Amino acid sequence: MDAIEVEGLKRRYSKGFEAVRGVSFSVREGEIFALLGTNGAGKTSTVELLEGLAKPSEGKVRVLGFDPYSERRAVRPRTGVMLQEGGFPSELTVTETVRMWAGCTSDARPIEDALAQVGLSGRRADVRVKQLSGGERRRLDLAMALIGRPEVLFLDEPTTGMDPEGRRDTWELVRELRTAGTTVLLTTHYLEEAEALADRLAIMRAGRIVTTGTHEQVVAERPSRIRFSLPDGLTMAALPPTLSPAEVSGNRVEIRTPSLQSELTDLLMWARQSGVELQNLHARTATLEEVFLEIAQEPDEDDAAPGGPGSQAGDGGATPEQKEVERV
Ligand SMILES: Nc1ncnc2c1ncn2[C@@H]1O[C@H](COP(=O)(O)OP(=O)(O)OP(=O)(O)O)[C@@H](O)[C@H]1O
Question: Which residue ranges have biased composition labelled Gly residues (predicted)?
Fold first, then answer.
């Protein structure tokens, strides 16, 4: 059994606006799965359904084999949730906040351990929440998510606001959790975070998953690039005819190809046979950033439909104020 199973998931808000439009994926036990997508793609709306905070409009969710909404009592003690905004009382200190939360958690870990794990022990433990930096608040949110020793951990943009060191520490911690067998589902806007952490990932746009797989599988779907400088005196006409169309700027040539190995071989064999030295030669697969940007720019077939993701609040999408009210 997979730790998380999602099938045909849909979520409609008021006035019929569909933020999640038939999403399916699964996360294996002990796996880190990253959900990526532009603002408004539907990541949080999806994760909230997995956390059992709302009932799906359609489709099925199972976490550890249970429906997280109707069987919340069975699921909640075994999951840890780090929401985008913790929303804890700002007058309490760090220790008081964690103690309060531990009081609501069965089998809570020692507070000192939880704070040490996220780097908030010592003097920072006595600081009021309102005096914490944005990154420190995220660490506090993480400590809360970990207090109940969760088997499944949901992290919604866990490192937003953290400095580079805090981010690296958090990545290390998430990796340690995976080693200990924890299943982690995270959303992030940092592509390098997904690259560094995720065993598999999915990219969402307008309520749908456009692509999913390992990092290698996802980038393999898009063209690779071969770049070089054309030696003086040579024109494009001299290159092997088997190469994909090239973009040329001055003497710089860029070829985008679905078959990196064979086109690179053709190019190099031609260069050797012609006695040509190719300057500034680079060959590489697509990057996750390129895949992400291409997906973000592709038009969505539903954009023009009333109430579709491209439409504004008047068609059913929410203003920030409405979102606040409806999420509470
Ligand atoms: N409570 C709500 N009522 C109506 N529409 C909502 C509500 N919450 C979110 N939406 C809309 O659903 C869509 C998806 O929002 P969601 O927050 O899930 O996206 P996201 O991918 O998490 O975005 P971000 O990266 O900005 O956090 C957006 O168009 C948003 O305006």
Answer: 307-317
